[in-house]
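Course assignment 3, question 2. Fill in each field.
Student: A.L.
Task: Predict the tertiary structure for the chain below.
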Amino acid sequence: MISAKAAAKWGVPALAVGLAIAPLGNLLAQAAAPAPAATGNADKGKALFENSSCGACHVLAAAGASGEIGPSLDKNALLTHDLLVSRMKNGQGAMPPYAGQLSDADIEDVTAYVLSVAAK
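Answer field:
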């Protein structure tokens, strides 16, 4: 934060620059924060993955899944807890929403399973 003394010495331009870059610190702090971990049960998630036919669309070697419609879950650097939960709840593109078919706990279980076995 810029003090009144510094603002008086450097003037309005310095104050404007200080205020403009202040949000950058918050952004960097958020980026450095660890991603939330899956809180579900991976064993239950495996059964749900298999019983919900996830493998019909997605590749996941640990599940013997070789679908070709959705993105591969193996070696997918974009997979995060939040992304998986969002896609399962809300769907996107060819992926239908599962919010009405799977409970929040079920979605956490599938997320825990996928994150625990997806080859990186």
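Instructor remarks: The first strand starts at residue 59 and ends at 60. The chain has a mean pLDDT of 81.
Grade: pending
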